[in-house]
């Protein structure tokens, strides 16, 4: 039996910062866990500063961000539970595919290559990027941000939006990799960015490891709205119960 994880790594999504996890982190620390919520490289400031000057995103791509988190995880003494929101949930899938982590949780996770659902609501939430495909990143105005994140309270990286059209997409995993850790996929019924249907289809593609799909009704994309405690506790309980040490983790995460 693998030793129970004592560390949780939280990965935020695009146009978020680690501050989006502050209540989750506090709750998990109160349960005795060591909680790490590192920013994407270059995004260590507050969300207001990043929205005012999104140029910090210009040098980022999926591989750079995932490598950043893999390095952090590789420095830990044992595999942690990895939780990611939105694009952070996509990165969680890639990290687990690389052998990192004892268990993973994706909250409204970004889809990876092979999941072809692209609902109209997703297109609308991502429209600032899709309308200007040669501009790598752009800011969301207040109305766009409200639709994408609040909608009852992103825009999408090009590598995620067009993963199915790229031969060697960074947002890709091996769905048949039996050595990766288990993963919980959480969807929110009122999510305009990543609706439940593609998340369910994504979970169904994993056939070689324990996977569960869970949908919470009446909730939008942002994980910090009222009632977040129910989601946070469900995520942690599932991860703690299913955690294991993936084969070759010491070599693959360092």
Brief digest:
By secondary structure, the chain is of the alpha/beta class. It has helices at residues 22-30, 47-52, 62-74, 87-97, 120-130, 142-150, 158-161, 196-205, 228-242, 249-252, and strands at 7-11, 34-36, 81-85, 103-107, 183-188, 211-216.
Distance between the termini: 22 Å
Proportion of strand residues = 5-15%
- The succession of helices and strands, N to C, reads EHEHHEHEHHHEHEHH
**How much helix is in the residues?**
25-40%
Classification by helices and strands: alpha/beta
* Poorly predicted segments: 129-138, 148-155, 248-254
Oligomer: single chain
Q: What is the topology, as strand order, of the major beta sheet? A: 2-1-3-4-5-6
Taking the sheet with the most strands, its summary is: 6 strands, parallel
Q: What is the molecular shape?
A: globular
As a whole number of angstroms, the C-alpha radius of gyration is: 17 Å
State the helix count: 10
Rounded mean pLDDT score: 80
Count of extended strands: 6
């Amino acid at each position: 039996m693998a030793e129970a994880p004592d560390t949780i790594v939280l990965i935020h999504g695009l146009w978020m910062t680690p501050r989006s996890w502050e209540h989750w982190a506090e709750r998990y620390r109160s349960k005795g866990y060591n909680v790490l919520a590192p920013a994407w490289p270059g995004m260590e400031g507050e969300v207001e500063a990043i929205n005012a000057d999104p140029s910090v995103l210009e040098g980022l791509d999926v591989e750079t961000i995932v490598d950043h988190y893999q390095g952090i995880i590789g420095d830990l003494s044992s595999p942690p539970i990895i939780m990611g929101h939105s694009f952070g949930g996509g990165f969680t899938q890639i990290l687990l595919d690389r052998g990192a982590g004892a268990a993973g949780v994706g909250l409204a996770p970004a889809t990876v290559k092979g999941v072809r659902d692209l609902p109209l609501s997703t297109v609308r939430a991502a429209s600032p990027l899709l309308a200007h495909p040669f501009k790598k990143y752009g800011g969301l105005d207040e109305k766009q941000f409200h639709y994408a994140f609040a909608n009852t309270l992103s825009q999408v990286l090009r590598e995620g939006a067009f993963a199915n059209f790229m031969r060697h997409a960074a947002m890709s995993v091996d769905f048949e990799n039996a050595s990766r850790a288990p993963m919980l996929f959480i969807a929110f019924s009122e999510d305009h960015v990543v609706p439940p249907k593609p998340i369910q289809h994504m979970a169904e593609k994993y056939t070689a490891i324990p996977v569960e799909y869970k949908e919470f009704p009446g909730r939008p994309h942002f994980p910090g709205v009222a009632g977040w405690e129910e989601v946070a506790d469900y995520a942690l309980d599932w991860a703690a119960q299913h955690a294991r040490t993936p084969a070759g983790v010491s070599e693959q995460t360092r």
